[in-house]
Specification:
Chain lengths: 144, 388
Amino acid sequence: MFKTIWGSDKAVASVAATSKIFIRGKQKAAMTPSTQRIVNQLSALSASRKQPKLLSLCNEDLIKNRTITNAWNVYKRKLFQKRDEQFEKQYNSIKNAMEDLKQTSPELFELANAKEQKRFPLEMRIPTDFPPNQPWVYNYAPKK
Amino acid sequence: MLNRTNLTRARSLRYLASKRFQSTESSSTGIWSDFSKRSPSLKLSNPAIKKNIFDKIDPSEGPASIQNYSRRLAYHSINEIDDTFKVAYEYLQEQSAEKYQQIEVLEKQVAQAQSETEVKELKDRIEALLVEAEASNPEVLYNTSYLSSEDLDKSQPVYRQILKEKWEAFDLMVTMQRLEQLHVIPDTLPTLDPKVDVKVKFPHNLKDEFSSWVTPGEILPAFAVSQPPTIRIQEFERVDQEQLYTVVVVNPDTPDLATNSFSTTLQYGLANVPLNNVDNTISTSTLLTQGDSYTFQHYIPLTPEKNAQNQRACLWVFRQAKPLALDALAGPNTHFDIRTFVETNSLNPVGAHVWRQHFDRSVNDVRRSYGLEKGKVYHRVRQAHPVI
């Protein structure tokens, strides 16, 4: 067995094999000649030329566009208003029902408002770079 | 970008249209084409442009708003814009019609209202609704966007509202900046809560440079201000009854040798000037016909002495609570105390303007024409920090 200062000759051979594949810097995919031609053409153009052309509309069309935008905004606003009203109604009916339950049966109200037992509490695992020394706590009891 | 958003909106709005407006074929039956109650000033006056907006732009003619013939022919409209516009117009018109129904109800309430405050409150609500009902009308949009403010009918609340927004966006900011930088506030009056747009011009000038509206803070030569100015006071609030205005021009930079300081001189004083939303200008013709019944101090232009500093002509506009007696206002114009003047006459400052003057070669001529004595010549006082 021939030994070098780096280790066995087998290890050195494997390092040499990987260094052949290694390329310093960002790796680029090979381009087809047609793509390359477009890239060259674009690189010769200034940045402002590459922007999509600004639409120059006449006054009539600008007014039409603003009217369409206004109508669209009104339409959306009405939708949102309708949805908000629905939410408010729902909330109020829930609130009334709970008030009613509180009056008629306090035990059921307590049960309805009992906090759910969380199956996986937050303190069980916090994000770390490495796994914990004790990966799983078998006799875990939530903090009170 | 515009094209694409319009396309998506076109699809959504067309879906809306298929559900809501199946019966509506023509757009000429809605509230926005009914001028029995609405003012004709809400119309788009140019028939060619109106046709372009409400019908398609004919590609063989091009849009009427473009002047250049070849550019007009080369114009391409956006895809789907006309159909989408039709639906949008119908939708907005329906919203507007609802507003007009609310207005009708309020107008009936006005007729039955008991107190004056109630009437005012109702009228304010009607005005707000009128603005909402017309603000998205494309004809009104076109007029406010592309016509000059002079051509708009200020009796319409919607035009006043849009003009107010334009004023607040630029002219008001310029005016307030100049009033503060040149210390018109607080050298003349402590502060100003601006309510009206005040514009000043000197129409006797033949050169365009001096005959157009004066930018606040501009330095003007004596010949350019040698005749009384035309003052435009644009009210944005509704003026129901007659509103009277007082206008004064003061110069707070008159050298006062006795106290080695400066004193204020009243250069021009008008009172009891009736103005409203539409009739808003104190022009030369107003002064020629009714000038005597308004003037308590005839116009004397500022005539700064040689080597005196820049002098400010501060123009203040006040709303009057009641008519004033002109004889009581008249008095010596030197050592004028504007703060006491405002307090004793219970005036409400609503607008201001300022221009500046210094000695130039036309000052002596102006002095001669107004019969003033020959001006003094002061020593030149060099500034502490030389201009580099």
